[in-house]
Every structure is written in structure tokens, then in C-alpha cells.
Amino acid sequence: MKKYLLTPGPTPVPAEVSNKEGLPVIHHRTAAFEKLFVEVNENLKYVFQTKNDVLTFASSGTGAMESAITNILSPGDKIIVAETGKFGERWWKIAKVYGVNAVILKENNGDPVNLENLKKALKENPETKAVYSTLTETSTGVANDIKAMGEIISKTPAVFVVDAISGLGAQKLHSDEWHVDVVVSGSQKGLMIPPGLAFASISDKAFKLYEQSKLPKFYFCWKAGREFIEKKQTPYTPAVSLFVALHESLNIIKAEGIENVWARHLKLANATRAAVKSIGLRLLSSSPCNAVTAVCVPDGLKGGDIYKKMRDEQGVNIAAGQSELKDKIIRIAHLGYMEKYDIIIALSALEMVLTQLGYKFELGKAVSAAEQEFLK
Amino acid sequence: MKKYLLTPGPTPVPAEVSNKEGLPVIHHRTAAFEKLFVEVNENLKYVFQTKNDVLTFASSGTGAMESAITNILSPGDKIIVAETGKFGERWWKIAKVYGVNAVILKENNGDPVNLENLKKALKENPETKAVYSTLTETSTGVANDIKAMGEIISKTPAVFVVDAISGLGAQKLHSDEWHVDVVVSGSQKGLMIPPGLAFASISDKAFKLYEQSKLPKFYFCWKAGREFIEKKQTPYTPAVSLFVALHESLNIIKAEGIENVWARHLKLANATRAAVKSIGLRLLSSSPCNAVTAVCVPDGLKGGDIYKKMRDEQGVNIAAGQSELKDKIIRIAHLGYMEKYDIIIALSALEMVLTQLGYKFELGKAVSAAEQEFLK
């Protein structure tokens, strides 16, 4: 059966990119690799909208998250974690392992970070070394107001760290302008290549904390990474074939223009939201993001059933809910190498499966609602 | 110019493998991935010659090395590092970052671990938690006698950890039979895929130390990795395209048979050694390994010049020396997807470049010495 990948990571890889990935491996200590490395770094800065160095690790995104704890903190330090779902949680779980004290601001599933709570927490905890949050929370489909958060945090000594693993390239992010000190990301989302690379952009303010930090780090050490960028290299053998793929995908993003990439994701997200609402379904999030739409499952149905039927009988792989949201939501990604017709496919499959499961609505309605959005 | 990769990593990737790497990415939470994951794990055990679980990380080999420190030790613990070059050094450099005390047994460049010194060190340091060493030391071309070391160490409470990053699949290694508790490796060497995956096999003896270990770990946590193996998954998004490539390359290795793979590497290594000796060059190592041959550069010449001329003018990428061996040696790899004619190419290019640089010998002699070895 022909398969369609509409999950919030891994996302589809353009053939122009995957073909490059399979080319003969080049050695990394060569002029050919160094040229590619320099171009990749320039284009990463463009996508991150930052003047800061962006370090690339052979790793999942979680490795880069861990680096954003170990490279700026010491045991006993206090941080604030403004979490809006399962991936936000990961910040304090890592912190805990390292003996860092996290003040946790937890929102109800679907709600974004409450700015007043953040202000209050910063006032009550003036010794806060850093605030950790998430651009787009993949588990709940929430977009946080990083711009407003950055404005608040920049008035304090705290460093602002944002997980943009699923958000980068999907949701507007002006890292420098919005006072984000550290942005971590991964390769298998908006960057349109397979999983295996992770990134961290690091401001000078954050790097000052590195100098004081006492937590141990080796493979994910930022200082080593920064020093090697000067030499147009990485400290340890880079994942060369993924770098080559990334070089190509970044060129594609640059050619489209990052503002246009964001606008495309917004358009696909808007169409998805309008479509599911048109057939009586509710969004989980009061602040829905442009990477993935979390849709509440109608009473009497199970999210896992919808997900499995779509995947196994229709070949359309969306995502189910995770943990306590397992059967309560389904998640349709509009992330990375996607266009209007990827959304039409997802909606058409959803319509057919919901009908099979006995949910009543006018067949074709969701698709037409999306088309109306696309025609705007 | 047509290019030839003869470095000790990355190594050439068979087209059958790289073509698989570029296939559409599959989602990792699917039956298709789980089937592949189970088969990969079975075949990794075969290549590692172990019954233990082999964990796979999205990472360079160094990440797996770090995991073999943080998952079994606590601050203040004592270890023995039996180092025979730059990569052996890395063990105590990581240990130092984590506040672990390393007794360092350092050999002269080219010499293998001295077994008497190891016995003595173990006797003098009965509280030693683990001994760290290297199967084939890429920087000096040394093979260590892991079998004999394992016999010595197994009589003590210490755990034996071996870096087989460049050695796996090139040099005979019976992990379980030789009492090796932890074997770490990487993907871009004998496993014939691009860089980006790292591995660690873990014995029950080593895992007992995990339970006592107080060093912090998150991304590289062995317990999480072990628990997810049961679920046919990895704790964090796996580097799917590299997994797919690995699945194919492990099938190729299994079809050849690991004993035959080792024998092929030995044959290529023997031919390389005989060839360079036939034109008056000396091997650096008194215990040369089968992954890479380190050749001393004749008086008056610089290793860097030979390396660069071969790479830039002949398209033949061997390796130069590193650190203090920079200009003193060159290194010719016979590692991974290589056969007789890869060695012939390296030797032919070496003959021409040495002649251009003024070194006197009978042109064709090295090639013929290799051919004689191949005809045996």
C-alpha cells in the first residue's frame, strides 16, 4: 500500500535531499566537507534567525536538550520550567537527574504558558539561572508566546532556553530579536531530513553561564563545539550523510524563504483546524501551533482506533495521543515537506475512518472546509 | 577526479546499503520499524559475539564511550585506563571530567598494552571498578590482546570495557568468551554505514555497577535503553535512515560470515604490511592491527605531504598521523567494505607519490609484494 507520513517527526524527506544522503560518504577532514559545513552553519543561522553559533550534534533532539542543562548549570542551581506537555516535562526530568532545582509552571493540557505566572515565578525566584520552555509542544499542539516570554525574561539575569525541536521552520521564531539565548532543535521535523542530528544555538549571555557551570559534560560540551566551528569541523566524527542531506534541505528552505515557510505552515494549520471544526471536532489547544494539530476525539470513540485504522487500512500515518492523552486526541502534522494535498489526504482518510467508526457527519465536509481555506 | 576513501573511518558504504539509506523515512513507532529493530539487534549480537543486549544511540562513538563511564561509575571511583594512543587517552579524559580517578598505563607509540603492567596495576589497586582499553587503536595502528587482558581482569571484581569503534568487524573479537563486559563501537568503520550511530553491549556484571553508579546520565542512560529494547524501540527518536542502512549492512556481514570478515581484514592487513616493508618502510606498531596500518615516514619526508599529495593529486584519501605523530606516520586503512584492489590502489598511489617526493625504490615493488601475499 502507498504510504503517507503525516506525523510530527520523522517527516517526509524531499527526494532531492534523500538522493544526496545516499551519495558516497566524504571524509570530514577535507576541504569538501569544510565548505559544506560553513554553508550549513550560515543557513542554520538564517533558519534560527540568529547571529549566534549553531552547534550540530550527531544525536536525537534530547541530547541537545541535555546539553542545554549541563553546559550552563551547576548542582543546586534553580531554574524555571514553563511546560505545556510531555516534551516540556523533559526539561525538568533532565534537570532532576543533574541535581538542579526546577520550579515547574504547568498548564492544563492545551493551554500555553501563562505570562503572569511566569512573571510571578521570576519575581519570587530572583536567583533563577535559566527559564526553559517549548516553542511548539508536540504532545498537545500548543504554541507558546516565545516573543512575550523573551521580553519578560530578558529583564532578568536568567537565560532563556527554548526547545524548538518540532517548531523550527514551522512556527515563527526570531531567536535574537525575541531574546532567546539558547534554541535547541532536531533534524527530522521542519528541516526535512531524517532523524540523527540535533542543534543548539548559544548566545553570549548563555555562554557566560558555561564558564561558571560545574555540571559534567563531554560529548555534548559546547566549548569544544564552539572551538571546532572555528576549524570548520565538529569535535567528534559528524554524521556526514545527514550533513550532506541537511546542506540540500537548507538550500531548499532558503530558496523558499523562511517567512514563506512559516506562512505555508500557518496556511496548512489553518486549513486543518477549519476542516476538523467543520465536522464538529474540537481542538485540544486554546493556542494551536502550526506544526501539528491536536484534535479531540468525539465521545464514544478512541483515538488509538482512529490512528490505527488510518495507518493500517489507509496507509496514512498520523499520530495518536501520548500518555494520559492516548485515546483522547489524534494529531495531524503539517510539518516540513508538506503542501495542501498532504492535508487533503489526511482529512480524506480521517473522514472515511470516522464514518466507518460510526461518527456522523456529511462526508466531504472537512475536505471542502480545507479547500475554502486554501482558496482564501 | 574519481575519489577513493581509504581512511579508518568513515569507510566506503556499499551501494546496496546507501541506496536503502535514501528510501522514504519510516516512522519508528510502527511494526515495520520494530521488525527491523529486532533483526538489527540480533545481528549486532552476532557481530559483537555476545549474548548481551547491544544498545544503539544516535551519536558518534565518543557518546557511547561517555556512556561507559557515566553508567557504571560514581565520583571518586578508581579505574585503570590501558591506553595505546589518542583514542585510549579519551577514556581518561572523559573520566577526569566526571571526577573519576584513572590509573593510566601508557605504552610507547606503537606498543600494545603490557600484560604484566596490567596485572601489577590491578594488584596495587584492588578497588578498581573497571579497566578501559581499546581493541584496535586507530591513531597508532596497534592491536591489543583483549583475550589475554580479559582473562586477567575476569579474575578481579573489575569490569572490562573495550573501545572497538574501529576494531569491530576488522579484528577478531569474542566479547563473551573473552570476558569483555562492555564493548562500544561506531557505525562508520567495519559496519560499513555512514557515521551517526554508536553502540554499547552490556554484560550483567557491568549492569550491576549501573545500579550503584551515581554519575548523572540522561540521553545515554543504559537503563532506559535496556527497557526500550523490550518494547522494540529506542528511548528517543532513532536515526531511522541509518538504522535501515545498518539492517542491510549487517545482512551483508552475516552472509559473508564474521570469521570470514575477520580473515579478509587480516589478509588485506598482511598484504599492506608486506608491501610497505618491501620498499624499506617500517611499521609503527610492534603489534599491528587489521583495521589500519600505521607506516613510519622515511627520513627527510613529511607524512602530511604524502597524505596531501595522495588526497589532492591522486584522489586517494588515506590518513595522516595525529598530534605528535602528525608528520611521522601515514595510515592506510583496510577497514569495512574493502577488497584486494582497494589496497592495490592505495599502494600504487603511495608508490607514485613517494617517487615524486624523491624517495628511492623500485617502482611497482610494493604492489608486487601485496600481490604475492594475495596469491598465498
Q: What is the 3D shape of chain A?
A: globular
β-sheet strand percentage of chain A:
15-25%
Class inferred from helices and paired strands of chain A: alpha/beta
Largest interface, counted by CB within 8 Å of the partner chain's CB = A-B, 53 and 53 residues
- State the CATH superfamily name of the largest domain in chain A: Type I PLP-dependent aspartate aminotransferase-like (Major domain)
Radius of gyration based on Cα positions of chain A: 21 Å
Mean pLDDT of chain A: 97
CATH architecture of the largest domain in chain A: 3-Layer(aba) Sandwich
Q: Number of helical runs of chain A? A: 13
Largest sheet of chain A: 7 strands, mixed
Across the major sheet of chain A, the strand order is 2-10-9-8-5-3-4
Please write the string of helix (H) and strand (E) elements of chain A.
Answer: EHHEHEHEHEEEHEEEHHHHEHEEEHH
Helix percentage range of chain A: 40-55%
Top keywords for this entry?
three-stranded antiparallel beta sheet; 376 residues; Aspartate Aminotransferase, domain 2; homodimer; 16% strand
Topology, element by element:
The structure is a homodimer of 376-residue chains.
Chain A: E1 4-5, H1 15-21, H2 31-48, E2 53-58, H3 61-70, E3 78-83, H4 86-97, E4 101-106, H5 115-124, E5 130-134, E6 136-137, E7 142-143, H6 146-153, E8 159-163, E9 182-186, E10 197-202, H7 204-212, H8 222-230, H9 240-256, H10 258-278, E11 292-296, H11 303-314, E12 316-317, E13 319-320, E14 329-333, H12 340-356, H13 365-375
Parallel strand pairs in A: 1-12, 3-4, 3-5, 5-8, 8-9
Antiparallel strand pairs in A: 2-10, 6-7, 9-10, 11-14, 13-14
Helix pairs in contact in A: 1-9, 2-9, 3-4, 5-6, 10-13, 11-12, 12-13
